[in-house]
Amino acid sequence: MMMNHLQRSCAAIVLSALALIACATCLLALERIIVAPAKTHFITAESGQTFSPWGFNYDHDSDGRLLEDYWHDEWSTVVEDFREMKQLGANVVRIHLQVGRFMDSPTAPNARELKRLAQLLEVAEAVGLHLDITGLGCYHKADVPDWYPTLSEKERWAVQAAFWTAVARTCKASPAVFCYDLMNEPVLPGANKTETEWLLGELGGKHFVQRISLDLAGRTRPEVARQWVQHLTTAIRQQDEHRLITVGVIPWALTFPGAKPIFYAEPIAPYLDFVSVHFYPERGQIDRALDALKTYELGKPLVVEEIFPLKCDLDELADFIKRAEHVDGWIGFYWGTPPDAFPQQNPTISQAIQKGWLEFFQKGRSGI
Questions:
Q1: Whole-number pLDDT of residue 11
Q2: Sign of the torsion angle spanned by Cα atoms 308, 314, 316, 318
Q3: Which residue of 127, 231, 313, 363 pairs with 367 in a disulfide if CB–CB is 3.0 to 4.6 A?
Q4: Average pLDDT over residues 270-281
Q5: Phi/psi of residue 332, nearest 5 degrees
Q6: Distant-in-sequence, close-in-space partners of 115: CB < 8 Å, separation ≥ 6
Q7: For the chain, what are the domain ranges?
Q8: Is the CB of residue 296 less than 8 Å from the CB of residue 264?
């Protein structure tokens, strides 16, 4: 059965106490992650051990609430969820931060949210998890400040740089940070077309995709992407010189065979440390998905930053992961319910899929 609120609170208190007692040991045990000199995989910075990301997107709970919706009032839930993800075998957790929650104005970061982020890093250190910190989300339109959509491209990018400056300053001392992901699934406008909306279509009440520009204004799409990535990575590097930086992208090569990854094109490559791509293989099309995945073998470590049996069954997903030997890391999803907490009899289709996924995840890549 799922823990009630009192049980979660007690568990959080115990965990916090243990973290304080073992703080020095934990800090030594958790090492910063870097790209190996050969640029083929990840290693730990001090001991040089191979690090293979295997983790979860902790993007919302079972009710669809974003992390920022409950991490102040239900902190014990967050702590318990991190413990559960570690027990399931994760070494990385991807969190998603909304720009509207972290910026009170175009120039003023929100101190309360940054403090909570710092506390989350402490939990990650205590539990032994690294964080993939994905920023600039506008998932819930209600959380987007009225002033944000009205800004020009230059002004919007300035806000985004201020966001990353504040986040990197908060996180730079923690060994728990695996990477900074500049934005979830950024896209560009089409040629010879001026767009009017920064956010694209809604899915399940959330906007996962957003444009970084509304008008190319005579520039090429790779040039706009380079300017944006350079602007944000420069802001981060002024605070944190060593942390890995990436961008989680939509695999357009899966939809349009032969399509090239714009955000990892040659002019942009020097600014990003590894490739992150989101893959949901379709039933009966595993070979096609594997061919598309090869497009993202670009001489850097490759992480499938989102993976889930959304469009295929678990057997096909296992086949996809097993055959994608060139992938260095995989990040699935966890929404706060461990596998033993799902109904044993007559689960819903969604519950059965989630339970099956988590049991599959527990085996680890070597057990697939």
A1: 44
A2: positive
A3: 363
A4: 96
A5: -95, -135
A6: none
A7: 5-367
A8: yes
